[in-house]
Amino acid sequence: MAADAKKFIHGLENDTQYDVLVVGAGAAGMAAALYAALDGARVLLVERTPYLGGTSALSGGTTWVPLSQYAEQGEDSYENVSAFLDRAVGEHAPKAMREAFLKAGPEAIRILTANTDVAFRKCTFHPDYMADLEGATRCGRALEPLPFVTRHLGLQLKLMRPPIPEFTVLGGMMINREDIGHLLNRFKSPKSFLYTVKLVLRYAYDRLVHGAPARSVMGHALIARMLSSALKLGVDISVETELTEITPMGQGRHRLRLKQGAISREVIVNGGVVLASGGFGRDPLKRDALYPEGMPPYSPTAPGHTGAAHRLVETLGAFYGDAEDQPAFWAPCSIRRRKDESLAVFPHFVFDRSKPGTVCVDQQGKRFVNESLSYHEFGKAMLNSGGAANPAYIITDAAAIQKFGLGLVRLGGDKLEPYIRDGYLIEANSIDALAQKLGMQPENLQASIAHINAAAKSGVDSQFHRGETIYQRANGDPEHGPNPTLGPIATAPFYAIELYPADIGTAKGFMADENAQLVTTDGTQIAGIYAAGNDLNSIMGGTYPGPGITIGPGIVFGYLAARHAVARSRLKFDASEKSAMA
């Protein structure tokens, strides 16, 4: 039986020795802990919040690792993906780090899936976001975690970060893209009806018998699989635990002070400390210093990545990269106050912006961007607008909102009254009236919608070229033509939701070598200190070439860090053993 993670430090003796200590329990941190444990190391995984999973548990869990065993023979090549990343990233991040990722990625995924409960499948159709670049692919690089039944985790399941409520149905049932398709077609297809009945009955049974849903999907499933594996491998886990001191002991060994509640203990780490705390996105001082001017305070990410551990390793000489295109990854988000007064920050990834019958405009009522760009590029356009599109608005009509939803308004016929009543959804019976409610010139909004309506008829957006790449068209309505992303906005009443640029994870992070070991400004390695996930400077340089480019590299550099740290711990053990024998 695993020790109580909420009281783990209380029962720990001072100067307990570990081979590897991992700070942060998102996908990168948990992967590092698993790889180290698989290599026979004694591992402690420390998480400062009450829950494991970080933002990874709230995400779709898509994992971008090219050339894995899931890719079909001849579907891709090292040369092809390397050249694609060169074009996408350029000089915004060191090429050597991208090469290390590509070389180690297939092995990292093979080891993880062969020896733990972690399991993926290839996304059958998930194009790279920069689909217009030579070397982009339609599928094969993006992996998605398989759903996972979590009943066997018992009380340990309470360590999992709960899903975002707005991403569930029926009061807590997690669903993925496949589920959504069947739910929407439940009255149109016998296969989908049967699928839906089984899904709902299984959920109802689990709630009745076990008191909680037992089926986990997407990022939540990835973390649940990692937790299940960590428990089997004997990884020590401590939550609500903060790293407060790091003291070098020489030769890459470190003494760490850990605090859980009022209790503090010191541990000795012989092989390596892996930072995977999620970046600095919740640090208000660093947000002000490193994010673009006018950045709103909203973020759909999990709490916990305050940068506290960053400040400790900065005293050891660690430093951030400074060549990135963007310091963080962006997404347009809308906000709504929940009944419990907490704030829902909803990311508008793909489900509405690329659907026919929508348009996005700035505060003057003018289009400012191709609505079907990736969420990162869309957010970047908002921030580069000089404030004109910060905030912006997404606009639709009665027909489109009924079919596709809009933001927190669920697709398939959600009731609109509650959203209108609390101001999340703005409604008007004419375009002019909507413009007036939004405080913009009616003629500007009329012109924007007139252009969209004409483009919907011709299939060509001469202004911003919406729906011209395979990625953009993939997020539209496959049954709509001639352009699956363009449809008329003509059926009253009309609706709008306010959009803000929000960060979904930092790209700026610590510079390191190809083993994810941190370095100083003169290139000297900081022995025994590693980083993975958003703590490591993004190998994508603040660009967003494809789906899952945070989780994929997070797992792979967690592997590289763990492998190197465990090897260091063994060298020290061998040396101390020989010294004792002498």
TrEMBL record:
Domain FAD-dependent oxidoreductase 2 FAD-binding per the UniProt entry, residue ranges: 19-551
TM segment ranges: 20-38
Keyword line: FAD, Flavoprotein, Membrane, Oxidoreductase, Transmembrane, Transmembrane helix
UniProt KW Transit peptide keyword: no
Domain of life: Bacteria
Cofactor requirement: FAD
NCBIfam families in UniProt: PRK12843.1
PANTHER family associated with the record: 3-OXOSTEROID 1-DEHYDROGENASE, FUMARATE REDUCTASE
Name the UniProt record assigns to this protein: FAD-binding dehydrogenase
